[in-house]
Amino acid sequence: MSAVLEKGAPKASAPAMRPRATARAGPQRSASWKAALLPIVLTTIALLYVAVALLVPLAAVFVEAFRKGVEHYFTSISDPEAWSAIRLTFTAAAIAVPANLVFGIAAAWAIAKFDFRGKALLITLIDLPFSVSPVVSGLVYVLMFGLQGWFGPWLAEHDIKIIFAVPGIVLATIFVTFPFVARELIPLMQAQGREEEEAAVVLGASGWQTLWRVTLPNVKWGLLYGVILCNARAMGEFGAVSVVSGHIRGSTNTLPLHVEILYNEYNFAAAFACASLLAFLALVTLVIKTVVERRFLKSQR
Question: How far is CA 111 from CA 104, 208, 229, 287, in A?
Fold first, then answer.
């Protein structure tokens, strides 16, 4: 009988273990199912948000732009005042972007590669346009260069016009786009360290040779990325430019200001037609930005 019981003992214990295994498998399957479902839910929420907040308004701009037909669209954007606004927008960007490019490279190189007094203050000043409202920055230029400003009487005596003229628009654009290039380069240069530059100096390279042949090739994609962001902000700036421009049609109106004027005049088709140009430039900038980001990530691998 004992032998029979010993032989039967394993058979009795095996069924007793199966419910425990099943009980453990249940929570594991539930957890794995939730883990697989969570990314799908989050992705769906993100796509819905992007569609509602970005894609639908963007599509609405182009739909309204062509509501009265293609002929009316091209008539609106070929209007002399519209062309003047387009030229001024590109002119301001063409001056502001190279100016901030030169400053951004110099500031980033100094901050990342050298130690000096006032470095923290310089970094704070670079970030200043991010914390100051563009409208406030425009008012500061009016306070400085307006007729009643600090330098206004002297400028009037020498027949130099800054406020309500192209120079004021360029200065305001430079201010609001000031940090973009520097802020892209500073962390990148700091992450790369100083070893290569120090080695170049030891081998007899001058400062300019070190900059052109060592530093800039290592940050070229970050530099291009900063230039793209700077250019996009320069062409779309509204607040600071609105304060210093004077809204003179055909003279000191940039494209965003021209869109505002047309919209306030209830000329909605023309306003959306000009706005579609800004939207198109934004899409082109986004495509270029994506390509640069991919190149940059490949260069870091």
Answer: 10, 16, 21, 31
Q: What is the C-alpha to C-alpha distance for residues 246 and 255, in angstroms, rounded to an integer? A: 14
Domains of the chain: 3-65 (no CATH), 69-300 (1.10.3720.10)
Nearest in space to 93 (alpha carbons), one of 148, 170, 38: 170
Q: What are the structure tokens assigned to 114, written together? A: 């050298």
As a whole number of Å, the CA-based R_g of the chain is 30
**Residues contacting residue 213 through CB under 8 Å, at least 6 positions apart:** 200, 205
Residue 184 to residue 197: CA distance in whole angstroms: 19
- The model's confidence at residue 301, banded by pLDDT at 50, 70 and 90, is low
User: Do residues 237 and 172 touch, judged by C-beta distance below 8 A?
Assistant: yes
pLDDT tens-digit series, residues 67-123? 888 898 999 898 999 999 999 999 999 999 999 999 999 999 899 888 888 888 999
